[in-house]
Specification:
Low-confidence stretches: none
Oligomer: single chain
Strand content: 15-25%
Order of helices and strands: HHHEHEEHEE
Structural class: alpha+beta
Shape: rod-shaped
Number of helices: 5
Amino acid sequence: MRLDIRQLSILRSPRIVAAWSRLRSACEPAISRIHSALNPYWQRAAEWYAKRESREKLLLGLLGGLVSVLLIYNVAYVPARDWRDDLAARIASRRLQVVRLRGMMRNYERLRLELELTQKRTVPGGKDPALFSVLEMTLTNSVGRAKIGSITPSEHQVPGGFEQYTVQVKLNEIALAEIVDTLYSLKSLNVPISVSNLQIHQHARDSHSYDVELTCMALGKTG
């Protein structure tokens, strides 16, 4: 309430009153000219309307109401509706951006976890994982040297400053339990080894034995 009284006191200040008086004085000639120019037309319209019959006056009133409705529709309702539709479109666009942003955040978190897992399973730089020797010893303990058909090592660089160590292994005539034991032994090694390919075929001469081809891989940092 104090704020309203203060505002009223400001409006009644001499400066405001003087400014309003000067503005009214400056606009008064123009207003007078406009009033003088329109007054004859207004008088003619009033006289013409006064001569109309009641039915004509009713029709003119309805026409005036219709024009007023059309004017309000085009001047007020249509702009308000367009503003509402534009606001709804912008809100929908922002919601879509938020959904996309959340999707990007989920992808980032997934990639971050995958990177951490890859780093944990990566041999530190400058260290030779001795993959061939580790696999040969592990497989010998799991299935025996006689069932190891071949062990073929290879290595090559991959993008990102990494070295990929790969060993192709072929095992002959091993039992199903030995396959499970071999995979468990490989998973339990201190060297971060992953099996990238595994193929199991039934042995031609023994239906209870299997020939296994697997590819073991270790990823290391170069340098």
